[in-house]
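Subgroup meeting minutes
Present: P.N., E.W., G.H.
Scribe: E.W.

1. P.N. recapped why we're keeping a running log of single-chain structure predictions: easier to compare across weeks, and new members can see raw inputs and outputs side by side.
2. G.H. added today's entry (86 aa).
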Amino acid sequence: MEERWRDLKIGDKVRIKSWPLEMVRENLHADSQEFLDWLIATQSVLTITEIDEWGLPFGYIERWVNGGEQSEWWGLNHSELEIVSD
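Output recorded in log:
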């Protein structure tokens, strides 16, 4: 399995190309499923804003949901990531 996420740094931008092979949809909360579906369908870009003490990078994005702006973070320790250049 590809572990491109291990090389991510603060400020990097990534896109999730498709559902990660190692992720079981039914194991995720419905809101998480919807968010991941949205990220993939819109090909939106997450910006790495944090790397936790275990080395897990978190991507951040703001989006409009039900007429209001919503901040979202997603842990990125899975496959199907594409690094986006500026």
